[in-house]
Amino acid sequence: MDIRHLQYFLEVSQQQSFTKAAQHLNVSQPALSKMIRNLEENLEVTLLDRSNKQIQLTDAGQAVLEQAQRVLGMMEDLTTSLYDTIHLQKGAISFGLPPLIGTLFFPEIIANFRQTYPGISIQITEYGAKKMEQSLIEGHVELAIAVAPVDQSIFESIPFTEEKMKVVIPNHHTLASLERIELKELSKEKFILFQEDFAMHDLVRNHCLEKGFIPHIELESSQWDFIVEMVRANMGIAILPESICAKIHSKDVKDIPLTNPSIPWKLELIIKKDRYLSFATREFIQFIKDSRS
User: Fold this and answer.
1) Architecture of domain 3-86 in CATH?
2) Reduced to 3 DSSP states, what percent helix, strand and coil does the chain have, rounded to the nearest 5?
3) What's the CATH class of domain 91-159+267-292?
4) CA 89 – CA 71 distance, rounded (Å)
Protein backbone atom coordinates (compact mmCIF):
# COMPACT_ATOMS: atom_id res chain seq x y z
CA MET A 1 0.00 0.00 0.00
CA ASP A 2 1.30 3.43 -0.91
CA ILE A 3 -0.05 6.96 -0.81
CA ARG A 4 -1.68 6.61 -4.25
CA HIS A 5 -3.95 3.83 -2.96
CA LEU A 6 -5.35 6.23 -0.37
CA GLN A 7 -5.62 9.10 -2.86
CA TYR A 8 -7.56 6.94 -5.33
CA PHE A 9 -9.78 5.48 -2.63
CA LEU A 10 -10.59 8.95 -1.32
CA GLU A 11 -11.55 10.15 -4.79
CA VAL A 12 -13.84 7.15 -5.41
CA SER A 13 -15.46 7.72 -2.01
CA GLN A 14 -16.10 11.38 -2.78
CA GLN A 15 -17.40 10.79 -6.33
CA GLN A 16 -19.29 7.58 -5.41
CA SER A 17 -18.45 6.46 -8.96
CA PHE A 18 -15.44 4.75 -10.55
CA THR A 19 -16.15 6.50 -13.86
CA LYS A 20 -16.19 10.02 -12.39
CA ALA A 21 -13.23 9.30 -10.14
CA ALA A 22 -11.19 7.94 -13.05
CA GLN A 23 -11.95 11.03 -15.11
CA HIS A 24 -10.98 13.32 -12.25
CA LEU A 25 -7.74 11.42 -11.61
CA ASN A 26 -6.99 11.16 -15.34
CA VAL A 27 -6.52 7.37 -15.19
CA SER A 28 -8.38 4.54 -16.87
CA GLN A 29 -11.32 2.99 -15.02
CA PRO A 30 -9.76 -0.52 -15.09
CA ALA A 31 -6.53 0.82 -13.58
CA LEU A 32 -8.50 2.60 -10.85
CA SER A 33 -10.59 -0.50 -10.11
CA LYS A 34 -7.43 -2.59 -9.86
CA MET A 35 -5.87 -0.09 -7.46
CA ILE A 36 -8.90 -0.25 -5.13
CA ARG A 37 -8.93 -4.07 -5.33
CA ASN A 38 -5.26 -4.11 -4.36
CA LEU A 39 -6.03 -1.89 -1.37
CA GLU A 40 -8.86 -4.18 -0.23
CA GLU A 41 -6.64 -7.25 -0.62
CA ASN A 42 -3.88 -5.60 1.29
CA LEU A 43 -6.20 -4.65 4.17
CA GLU A 44 -8.17 -7.91 3.86
CA VAL A 45 -11.52 -6.11 4.03
CA THR A 46 -14.20 -4.92 1.61
CA LEU A 47 -14.18 -1.14 1.44
CA LEU A 48 -16.87 -0.46 -1.15
CA ASP A 49 -20.39 -1.86 -1.64
CA ARG A 50 -20.62 -2.24 -5.42
CA SER A 51 -24.08 -3.89 -5.47
CA ASN A 52 -25.93 -0.65 -6.15
CA LYS A 53 -25.62 1.75 -9.07
CA GLN A 54 -24.10 4.34 -6.72
CA ILE A 55 -21.07 3.06 -4.79
CA GLN A 56 -21.41 3.09 -1.01
CA LEU A 57 -18.78 2.75 1.69
CA THR A 58 -18.86 -0.28 3.96
CA ASP A 59 -18.30 0.22 7.67
CA ALA A 60 -14.64 -0.76 7.14
CA GLY A 61 -14.51 1.65 4.22
CA GLN A 62 -15.78 4.47 6.42
CA ALA A 63 -13.03 3.77 8.97
CA VAL A 64 -10.37 3.73 6.25
CA LEU A 65 -11.77 6.93 4.74
CA GLU A 66 -11.41 8.81 8.03
CA GLN A 67 -7.80 7.67 8.45
CA ALA A 68 -7.00 8.29 4.77
CA GLN A 69 -8.19 11.88 5.07
CA ARG A 70 -5.98 12.33 8.11
CA VAL A 71 -2.92 10.77 6.45
CA LEU A 72 -3.34 12.75 3.23
CA GLY A 73 -3.82 15.93 5.24
CA MET A 74 -0.58 15.23 7.09
CA MET A 75 1.20 14.60 3.80
CA GLU A 76 -0.03 17.93 2.49
CA ASP A 77 1.15 19.65 5.67
CA LEU A 78 4.51 17.92 5.31
CA THR A 79 4.90 19.13 1.73
CA THR A 80 3.97 22.68 2.70
CA SER A 81 6.28 22.64 5.72
CA LEU A 82 9.16 21.28 3.67
CA TYR A 83 8.61 23.94 1.01
CA ASP A 84 8.56 26.66 3.66
CA THR A 85 11.74 25.28 5.22
CA ILE A 86 13.66 25.04 1.95
CA HIS A 87 12.50 28.50 0.89
CA LEU A 88 13.31 29.95 4.33
CA GLN A 89 9.73 30.78 5.27
CA LYS A 90 10.21 28.96 8.56
CA GLY A 91 12.94 27.33 10.62
CA ALA A 92 15.02 27.56 13.78
CA ILE A 93 18.70 28.28 14.39
CA SER A 94 20.57 27.17 17.52
CA PHE A 95 23.43 29.64 17.88
CA GLY A 96 26.17 29.60 20.50
CA LEU A 97 27.12 33.19 21.21
CA PRO A 98 29.44 34.34 24.01
CA PRO A 99 27.76 37.31 25.74
CA LEU A 100 30.69 39.68 25.21
CA ILE A 101 30.91 38.93 21.49
CA GLY A 102 27.15 39.14 21.17
CA THR A 103 27.10 42.60 22.69
CA LEU A 104 29.90 43.87 20.49
CA PHE A 105 28.94 42.52 17.09
CA PHE A 106 25.56 40.84 16.82
CA PRO A 107 22.61 43.08 17.77
CA GLU A 108 22.36 44.60 14.28
CA ILE A 109 23.14 41.34 12.47
CA ILE A 110 20.43 39.43 14.32
CA ALA A 111 17.90 42.26 14.00
CA ASN A 112 18.48 42.52 10.23
CA PHE A 113 18.28 38.75 9.75
CA ARG A 114 14.98 38.52 11.65
CA GLN A 115 13.60 41.38 9.60
CA THR A 116 14.60 39.58 6.40
CA TYR A 117 13.40 36.14 7.57
CA PRO A 118 10.65 36.72 10.17
CA GLY A 119 9.61 33.06 10.11
CA ILE A 120 13.02 31.86 11.31
CA SER A 121 13.67 31.92 15.04
CA ILE A 122 17.15 32.19 16.58
CA GLN A 123 17.74 30.31 19.83
CA ILE A 124 20.84 31.75 21.51
CA THR A 125 22.96 29.83 24.01
CA GLU A 126 25.34 32.02 26.00
CA TYR A 127 28.63 30.68 27.35
CA GLY A 128 32.23 31.81 27.31
CA ALA A 129 34.01 30.95 24.07
CA LYS A 130 35.90 27.99 25.58
CA LYS A 131 32.74 26.26 26.81
CA MET A 132 31.03 27.06 23.51
CA GLU A 133 33.29 24.61 21.66
CA GLN A 134 32.17 21.79 23.96
CA SER A 135 28.55 22.77 23.52
CA LEU A 136 28.99 22.46 19.76
CA ILE A 137 30.64 19.04 20.08
CA GLU A 138 27.78 17.79 22.26
CA GLY A 139 25.21 18.98 19.71
CA HIS A 140 23.53 21.62 21.86
CA VAL A 141 24.09 24.24 19.14
CA GLU A 142 24.55 24.05 15.36
CA LEU A 143 26.76 27.09 15.01
CA ALA A 144 28.96 29.03 17.40
CA ILE A 145 31.42 31.88 17.69
CA ALA A 146 34.83 30.98 19.10
CA VAL A 147 38.23 32.57 19.58
CA ALA A 148 40.89 31.18 17.24
CA PRO A 149 42.65 28.87 17.06
CA VAL A 150 40.20 25.96 17.29
CA ASP A 151 40.80 22.25 16.68
CA GLN A 152 40.67 21.92 12.89
CA SER A 153 40.23 18.15 13.16
CA ILE A 154 36.86 18.71 14.84
CA PHE A 155 35.61 22.04 13.52
CA GLU A 156 35.25 23.89 10.28
CA SER A 157 35.89 27.58 10.82
CA ILE A 158 34.96 30.75 8.99
CA PRO A 159 36.84 33.98 9.86
CA PHE A 160 34.57 36.57 11.43
CA THR A 161 36.80 39.41 12.61
CA GLU A 162 40.27 40.14 13.92
CA GLU A 163 41.55 42.98 16.05
CA LYS A 164 44.43 43.76 18.37
CA MET A 165 44.43 43.95 22.15
CA LYS A 166 45.19 47.10 24.10
CA VAL A 167 46.35 47.77 27.66
CA VAL A 168 43.81 49.53 29.86
CA ILE A 169 45.44 51.43 32.74
CA PRO A 170 44.61 54.31 35.11
CA ASN A 171 45.53 57.76 33.84
CA HIS A 172 48.04 58.30 36.67
CA HIS A 173 49.89 55.02 36.01
CA THR A 174 53.61 55.33 35.33
CA LEU A 175 53.11 53.74 31.89
CA ALA A 176 50.20 55.99 30.94
CA SER A 177 52.43 58.45 29.08
CA LEU A 178 53.72 55.83 26.67
CA GLU A 179 52.42 55.58 23.11
CA ARG A 180 52.90 51.80 23.15
CA ILE A 181 53.49 49.24 25.89
CA GLU A 182 55.48 46.05 25.52
CA LEU A 183 54.03 43.00 27.22
CA LYS A 184 57.15 42.38 29.30
CA GLU A 185 56.71 45.84 30.87
CA LEU A 186 53.58 44.45 32.58
CA SER A 187 55.37 41.59 34.35
CA LYS A 188 55.13 43.29 37.76
CA GLU A 189 51.55 44.49 37.34
CA LYS A 190 48.36 43.08 38.82
CA PHE A 191 46.06 41.74 36.08
CA ILE A 192 42.29 41.90 35.97
CA LEU A 193 41.20 39.18 33.55
CA PHE A 194 38.07 37.57 32.23
CA GLN A 195 37.12 34.37 34.01
CA GLU A 196 38.72 31.06 33.02
CA ASP A 197 35.82 29.90 30.84
CA PHE A 198 36.53 32.88 28.57
CA ALA A 199 39.08 32.17 25.84
CA MET A 200 40.52 35.65 26.40
CA HIS A 201 41.74 34.52 29.84
CA ASP A 202 44.05 31.87 28.35
CA LEU A 203 44.97 34.12 25.43
CA VAL A 204 46.47 36.76 27.73
CA ARG A 205 47.97 34.30 30.20
CA ASN A 206 49.67 32.19 27.51
CA HIS A 207 51.28 35.23 25.89
CA CYS A 208 52.61 36.30 29.28
CA LEU A 209 54.12 32.85 29.79
CA GLU A 210 55.75 33.05 26.37
CA LYS A 211 57.41 36.30 27.48
CA GLY A 212 58.79 34.57 30.54
CA PHE A 213 56.49 35.60 33.39
CA ILE A 214 53.37 34.34 35.16
CA PRO A 215 50.78 37.12 35.37
CA HIS A 216 49.67 38.07 38.86
CA ILE A 217 45.90 37.77 38.61
CA GLU A 218 44.28 40.12 41.08
CA LEU A 219 40.69 39.62 39.98
CA GLU A 220 38.56 37.79 37.41
CA SER A 221 35.15 38.76 36.05
CA SER A 222 32.71 37.90 33.28
CA GLN A 223 31.81 41.58 32.70
CA TRP A 224 34.06 43.89 30.72
CA ASP A 225 32.58 47.05 32.22
CA PHE A 226 33.28 45.76 35.75
CA ILE A 227 36.87 45.00 34.73
CA VAL A 228 37.25 48.59 33.50
CA GLU A 229 35.79 49.94 36.75
CA MET A 230 38.30 47.88 38.73
CA VAL A 231 41.10 49.39 36.64
CA ARG A 232 39.67 52.84 37.37
CA ALA A 233 39.72 51.94 41.08
CA ASN A 234 43.46 51.16 40.85
CA MET A 235 43.00 47.42 41.37
CA GLY A 236 45.25 46.57 38.42
CA ILE A 237 45.53 46.68 34.63
CA ALA A 238 43.58 44.90 31.93
CA ILE A 239 44.24 43.75 28.37
CA LEU A 240 41.12 44.10 26.22
CA PRO A 241 40.21 44.05 22.51
CA GLU A 242 39.98 47.30 20.56
CA SER A 243 36.20 47.00 20.20
CA ILE A 244 35.77 46.99 23.97
CA CYS A 245 38.20 49.84 24.43
CA ALA A 246 36.10 51.89 22.01
CA LYS A 247 33.19 51.59 24.44
CA ILE A 248 35.13 52.91 27.44
CA HIS A 249 34.03 56.46 28.24
CA SER A 250 35.75 56.97 31.59
CA LYS A 251 38.20 59.87 31.71
CA ASP A 252 40.09 58.12 34.51
CA VAL A 253 41.53 55.33 32.36
CA LYS A 254 43.20 55.14 28.99
CA ASP A 255 43.92 52.38 26.49
CA ILE A 256 47.35 52.02 24.91
CA PRO A 257 48.38 49.71 22.06
CA LEU A 258 50.20 46.55 23.16
CA THR A 259 53.37 45.50 21.33
CA ASN A 260 56.10 42.86 21.42
CA PRO A 261 54.01 40.93 20.98
CA SER A 262 50.74 42.38 19.86
CA ILE A 263 48.06 39.91 20.91
CA PRO A 264 45.55 39.25 18.11
CA TRP A 265 41.92 38.57 19.00
CA LYS A 266 40.59 36.42 16.18
CA LEU A 267 36.95 35.40 16.13
CA GLU A 268 35.59 32.61 13.96
CA LEU A 269 32.25 31.08 13.16
CA ILE A 270 32.63 27.36 13.81
CA ILE A 271 30.57 24.30 12.95
CA LYS A 272 31.24 20.66 13.76
CA LYS A 273 32.65 18.74 10.83
CA ASP A 274 30.30 16.33 9.06
CA ARG A 275 27.23 17.65 10.89
CA TYR A 276 24.11 18.41 8.87
CA LEU A 277 23.18 22.09 8.84
CA SER A 278 19.59 23.21 8.42
CA PHE A 279 18.67 25.47 5.49
CA ALA A 280 18.08 28.29 7.97
CA THR A 281 21.52 27.90 9.56
CA ARG A 282 23.25 27.84 6.17
CA GLU A 283 21.48 31.05 5.21
CA PHE A 284 22.37 32.64 8.57
CA ILE A 285 26.06 31.84 8.01
CA GLN A 286 25.93 33.45 4.57
CA PHE A 287 24.06 36.44 6.01
CA ILE A 288 26.79 36.94 8.64
CA LYS A 289 29.53 36.66 6.01
CA ASP A 290 27.78 39.21 3.78
CA SER A 291 27.30 41.60 6.69
CA ARG A 292 31.05 41.59 7.40
CA SER A 293 32.18 41.98 3.80
Assistant:
1) Orthogonal Bundle (1.10)
2) 45, 25, 30
3) alpha beta
4) 24
Please determine whether the domains at 3-86 and 91-159+267-292 fall in the same fold group of CATH.
no
Protein fold of 163-264: D-Maltodextrin-Binding Protein; domain 2 (3.40.190)
pLDDT tens series, the chain, 293 aa: 788 888 888 888 888 888 888 888 889 988 888 988 988 888 889 988 888 778 888 888 898 888 888 888 788 767 766 776 777 888 889 999 988 899 999 999 999 999 999 999 999 998 877 788 888 888 889 999 999 889 999 999 999 999 999 999 999 999 999 999 999 999 999 999 999 888 899 999 999 999 999 999 999 999 999 999 999 999 999 999 999 999 999 999 999 999 999 999 999 999 999 888 888 999 999 999 999 87
Using alpha carbons only, give the angle 32, 38, 39 rounded to the nearest 5 degrees.
95
Instruction: Spell out where the chain has E strands.
Output: 48-49, 56-57, 91-96, 120-125, 143-147, 155-170, 181-182, 190-194, 216-221, 238-241, 253-259, 264-272
Closest CA to 280 of 104, 127, 78, 81: 81
**Dihedral (CA of 282, 288, 292, 293) sign:** positive
Give CA separation, 84 vs 142, 251, 283, in Å: 20, 53, 14
